[in-house]
Amino acid sequence: MLDYQKIGLFLSKKRKLSKLTQKQLADKLNISFQAVSRWEKGLSIPSVDLLQSLADLFQVTVDEILKGEDNWPIFSYEKSGVDVTKIDLMNNDLKDIIDIYQYNPAFRGAVYYLEDAMPAKSLQIVSKVQEPVTKQILALEYGYIDELIEDIICTLINDILMIGAKPLYITSTLIVGNMNRKFLEKIIKVFNEKTKKYNIKYLTGQSSIKPQALYFHQCLISTTITGILDKELEIDTRQICENDIILAITSNGIHHYGYSLIDSLIKTIPQIKKETINGRNFIDEIMKKQDCYYDALIDLIIKKKVKGLVNISGCGFQRNLMRIIPDGLCASVDLNKIVLPEIYQCLKSFLKVSEDEMLDTFNCGVGYIVIVTPDRKDEVINHINRYFSCIQIGLIKKGTRKIKLNNHLNWNRS
């Protein structure tokens, strides 16, 4: 099948190398310049009788015109796996989705205008990078691109929310082993769609084809969020003290971490994919996006009603919680109060690992930690419960250990 756009770009390049305008080329061929314009836009191709005339004029073969590329190079960027023509076509098609810096389109980065941000005198820029890796591999294998990208966005928003930052924009870098235009366009369009859902801007999606670094079918998505933090609203966890209350916002599942273990499990015991959890099949369940906690917490942050926030990321909730506990204090947590999502009961039954191993790997039902003073506990719980389930799971006490886990999680599947 002929690639009209590639042929059009090839003809445009040869015309410019010959120092001809579209009208001058049209006059030489005794046709209208609109016909030349249509070729170069990829809307049509030259008729059979004009192909040889073009070939003679540009000193190429008809075959080269119809392929949209020169035959002569033994080595070329395209033959190495990078087709710059297709990249140009994709970038041109995506210019209506991603804002191009109008003052200098050669600048391939992006600009965010600070007047769009919250008004404050003392602002700080906040940044966080996310590379999903194993979850991404599973998402691509089973066809969960939308869920993956929304999960990346929610995870990044939740990450910078921990210090009180407002998300401004997201940028992404897509590194692929081959030029798959449809795939790259899909990812960029989903990023654009999902960032709008969360009221942040998608500034740019940079694509890089690296056939020497990745296998033909492989892809790496690296995403960066940039936020802005009013110094007056910065959450200083050094102020956490004895008798503060530890609240947990219940997770809706695995979230973004622990997928290396899950991938090994699927490869070793593939029948786990037949499991049903909450009326969903296993893959559907593990590919759910993380909840975004911004709306539930931002008012509390602005009103300075929280003393500590923790997004439960890799290595389980206890390691993440320990990071914000000041010296001389201990987070005493009652595991029996945590609502354990059914997916973890399923995983533990197949993995046959200890409770400690599960707690070191997964969030085990704790999506976000919120630390408050005792007098604000009820108010904060009631506020968060308008969005997500929130319960008290512990208390800050004096102690030399940063965390103490009491009782056990409920591993009985209903």
Automatic annotation (TrEMBL):
<dbReference type="Pfam" id="PF00586">
    <property type="entry name" value="AIRS"/>
</dbReference>
<keyword id="KW-0067">ATP-binding</keyword>
<dbReference type="InterPro" id="IPR010982">
    <property type="entry name" value="Lambda_DNA-bd_dom_sf"/>
</dbReference>
<dbReference type="InterPro" id="IPR004733">
    <property type="entry name" value="PurM_cligase"/>
</dbReference>
<dbReference type="InterPro" id="IPR016188">
    <property type="entry name" value="PurM-like_N"/>
</dbReference>
<dbReference type="GO" id="GO:0005524">
    <property type="term" value="F:ATP binding"/>
</dbReference>
<dbReference type="GO" id="GO:0005829">
    <property type="term" value="C:cytosol"/>
</dbReference>
<dbReference type="Pfam" id="PF02769">
    <property type="entry name" value="AIRS_C"/>
</dbReference>
<dbReference type="GO" id="GO:0004637">
    <property type="term" value="F:phosphoribosylamine-glycine ligase activity"/>
</dbReference>
<dbReference type="GO" id="GO:0003677">
    <property type="term" value="F:DNA binding"/>
</dbReference>
<dbReference type="InterPro" id="IPR001387">
    <property type="entry name" value="Cro/C1-type_HTH"/>
</dbReference>
<dbReference type="InterPro" id="IPR010918">
    <property type="entry name" value="PurM-like_C_dom"/>
</dbReference>
<dbReference type="InterPro" id="IPR036676">
    <property type="entry name" value="PurM-like_C_sf"/>
</dbReference>
<comment type="similarity">
    <text>Belongs to the AIR synthase family.</text>
</comment>
<dbReference type="GO" id="GO:0046084">
    <property type="term" value="P:adenine biosynthetic process"/>
</dbReference>
<protein>
    <recommendedName>
        <fullName>Phosphoribosylformylglycinamidine cyclo-ligase</fullName>
        <ecNumber>6.3.3.1</ecNumber>
    </recommendedName>
</protein>
<dbReference type="Pfam" id="PF01381">
    <property type="entry name" value="HTH_3"/>
</dbReference>
<feature type="domain" description="HTH cro/C1-type">
    <location>
        <begin position="11"/>
        <end position="65"/>
    </location>
</feature>
<dbReference type="InterPro" id="IPR036921">
    <property type="entry name" value="PurM-like_N_sf"/>
</dbReference>
<comment type="pathway">
    <text>Purine metabolism; IMP biosynthesis via de novo pathway; 5-amino-1-(5-phospho-D-ribosyl)imidazole from N(2)-formyl-N(1)-(5-phospho-D-ribosyl)glycinamide: step 2/2.</text>
</comment>
<dbReference type="GO" id="GO:0006189">
    <property type="term" value="P:'de novo' IMP biosynthetic process"/>
</dbReference>
<dbReference type="GO" id="GO:0004641">
    <property type="term" value="F:phosphoribosylformylglycinamidine cyclo-ligase activity"/>
</dbReference>
<keyword id="KW-0547">Nucleotide-binding</keyword>
<keyword id="KW-0436">Ligase</keyword>
